[in-house]
Design a protein that fits this description.
Blueprint: H1 3-14, H2 17-39, H3 43-64
Length: 72
């Protein structure tokens, strides 16, 4: 399978219903992390959780909305 075929397959998978459910779960997870960050007393630990959840969320959001983001 060529790189183009893999990209096309992943793009078509992103358009499926299962992908929408995963995106919704990532949004919920990210918003929950932001809320926990705002009410947490240990800011350093919750800040790590916030960064981790945003890094999980951003690539799928960027691909879903056809933005190009390069993450090294």
């Amino acid at each position: 399978m060529s790189y183009f075929d893999q990209s096309l397959n992943s793009f078509l998978l992103r358009l499926s219903v299962a992908s929408d459910v995963r995106l919704l779960l990532r949004i919920i997870f990210t918003l929950t992390s932001v809320f926990l960050f705002l009410i947490a007393k240990n800011k350093s630990l919750s800040y790590f959780g916030l960064i981790f959840s945003v890094l999980l969320f951003l690539p799928s959001f960027a691909w879903f909305h056809h933005y190009v983001i390069l993450i090294p």
